[in-house]
Write a structure and sequence with these properties.
By secondary structure, the chain is an alpha/beta fold. It has eight helices and eight strands; from the N terminus they run αββααβαβαββαβαβα. Strands 1, 2, 3, 4, 5, 6, 7 and 8 form an eight-stranded mixed beta sheet that branches. Strand 3, helix 4 and strand 4 form a beta-alpha-beta unit. The protein is globular.
């Protein structure tokens, strides 16, 4: 990640811990997703200054994703992708995949540094951010079920402040067709090439 994403120190430490003892991570191309795919986007929302003052436990991203996926039908094939592939959030899907054994999709919802949660390609295409989960370093979880666009940003940012200034998040449950049409494809592989 580069440009405006802030210091990646804690997410790099989380990645080091997540990949300890893991020889490989399954990265899936969008074209190879099965018809019954359900892709959850994960990331961090809030202040990196707060993150440095209230360091992560390392479990926040996986807890958020697993809570979000609790109500997904059992016949769906589950995958994870990032909200963005920049700064700290460049690590988010990889950490979640490594700590949960959920395959990671080579795509994200923004393709650049994400300023607001409602500025994703999914939101502009009408894909709902909800259900949406926030998890803080203390294990507190908030589930949002019904809002869109700017309202989502307002509620989520307020919650992040109340939860200590930053949270892990999971949302934008997307099917194969939505990912193929609206996600920014190949961001992980392009980052790897760079």
């Amino acid at each position: 990640g580069s440009g405006g994403g802030g210091d990646c120190y804690w997410f790099q430490r989380m990645a080091d811990h997540a990949f300890e003892g893991i020889e490989s991570l399954q990265i899936v191309e969008v074209a190879d997703l099965p018809d019954n795919a359900c892709v959850v986007s994960v990331g961090m929302v809030g202040s990196l200054t707060a993150l440095n003052e209230k360091p992560p436990s390392g479990a926040e991203l996986t807890l958020a994703a697993k809570r979000l996926l609790r109500d997904v039908r059992s016949d769906r094939s589950i995958f994870v992708a990032g909200f963005e592939c920049a700064g700290t959030n460049a690590f988010s899907a990889l950490i979640t995949g490594a700590t949960s054994s959920i395959p990671v999709v080579d795509a994200d919802a923004m393709g650049r540094g994400l300023s607001w949660l409602d500025q994703t390609k999914y939101d502009s295409a009408g894909v709902s951010i909800c259900p949406f989960v926030l998890t803080d370093p203390s294990g507190h979880t908030v589930l949002y079920e019904n809002f869109r666009g700017r309202d989502a940003e307002r509620f989520i940012r307020d919650s992040a402040v109340l939860m200590g200034g930053w949270c892990a998040c999971a949302g934008y449950l997307a099917d194969r067709n939505q990912v193929a049409r609206f996600a920014v494809i190949g961001t992980l592989s392009r980052a790897h090439e760079l």
